[in-house]
Every structure is written in structure tokens, then in C-alpha cells.
Design goal:
Distance between the termini: 25 Å
Number of domains: 1
Number of helices: 5
CATH class: Alpha Beta
Largest sheet: 8 strands, mixed
Strand order of the largest sheet: 4-3-2-5-1-6-8-7
């Protein structure tokens, strides 16, 4: 079965916006982790803002292995308006994330990655559409920036239990953590 994997870079205090501020460069373990995470994915989901930003940056980037992955993988952009910039294998998905995920999971294939796209990631977490979190956590306190996990994420005050799949400390002090989301609430 295909899993929906949210891969994100974050500071230790949870900022996920502008990762260059807290993750200026990867060490060899973080590079290998990213390659492993994207190596299982054959589909990517992006929010509209991230698509607009990335469609101008990644087609000319040589930042590997992510550039080859994101430039070639089929990309579904959750949006209510037509895409105005072209990018290889990009499709505007006007259905709801839940409907799109159900459709994609019914097809054979690898994991479905959610990259960047803070608003999309938060809404998918809220709706229970994420199967796994793959987090590269920098040894940095950002102090500013939007958070993936904040007080109003779920709105019901209930904790969500996670199952640790794997955790690794890198030579630069970053943490690479994979969690499987459990269906039942704690």
C-alpha cells in the first residue's frame, strides 16, 4: 500500500519556514536521509504557493538529489486556479486532498510525498491524511517562522500518538526522525 509521507526540514523549536535560516547545509547523513526518503516516492503533492516558488527555482538547480527528484516526479498541485508557470509533470489538482489521496492510493506505486507546503501539510495532518512524518531537525533554535505543529493544529486539544520508526543523530548534531501516525488518538 502507498503511504503519504510528509518530509520537512525544521528547526528544533519547530520552524519550517525558510529552512536556509536553520539548515544552511546538509551533512553526509542528512544527504543520505533525504535520498532514502525521496527514493521511495514516485508522486509529490504541493500547495499552490510552494509550486509557484519551486517552479521558478528547481528546474535550474543542481542541488542533488532533490533537484532530479522534484523536477521529474509527477507533481499534483492542490489549487483552485490554473497553473501559470510550467514545470515538468505538474498537474493542477482541483479535488480535495482527501479525494486526491484516495485516488492515488488506489493506484499502484511508491510513496506519495508532501514537500514544503506548510498550509497543505497542516490541513492534511488535521484531516488524518498523513501516514508518516520524516523530519530532518536542525540543531538550531529559529525563534521565528511558521510552525508545522502549533496549538491550533487540531483544535480539539487531544494528543495524537506517534510510533517511532527510526531516529538517527548526524555528525552535525541534526536529528533524522521517522514517525508513523497512529489512527487512534491518545
Amino acid at each position: 500500500m502507498r503511504n503519504v509521507v510528509l518530509y520537512t526540514l525544521m528547526s528544533l523549536d519547530g520552524a519550517v519556514e525558510e529552512p536556509d535560516r536553520y539548515f544552511p547545509e546538509f551533512d553526509k547523513e542528512t544527504d543520505a536521509y533525504e535520498a532514502r526518503v525521496i527514493g521511495t516516492q514516485d508522486t509529490a503533492l504541493l500547495g499552490r504557493h510552494m509550486y509557484d516558488e519551486w517552479s521558478r527555482y528547481w528546474p535550474t538547480s543542481d542541488n542533488q538529489p532533490f533537484a532530479d527528484f522534484i523536477n521529474n516526479v509527477p507533481k499534483y498541485v492542490i489549487t483552485s486556479s490554473p497553473l501559470t508557470t510550467g514545470w515538468t509533470n505538474a498537474t493542477a489538482a482541483t479535488s480535495t486532498p482527501a479525494d486526491l489521496i484516495a485516488e492515488l492510493k488506489a493506484q499502484p506505486g511508491g510513496d506519495i510525498g508532501v514537500h514544503g507546503s506548510i498550509d497543505l501539510a497542516r490541513s492534511m495532518l488535521r484531516e488524518g491524511l498523513i501516514d508518516q512524518l520524516s523530519l530532518a531537525i536542525a540543531p538550531t533554535l529559529s525563534g521565528v517562522g511558521r510552525r508545522l505543529f502549533d496549538a491550533d493544529l487540531f483544535g480539539d486539544g487531544d494528543a495524537r500518538r506517534l510510533e517511532l520508526v527510526e531516529a538517527t543523530r548526524t555528525s552535525s548534531g541534526a536529528l533524522l526522525v521517522d514517525y508513523r501516525l497512529r489512527v487512534a488518538q491518545a
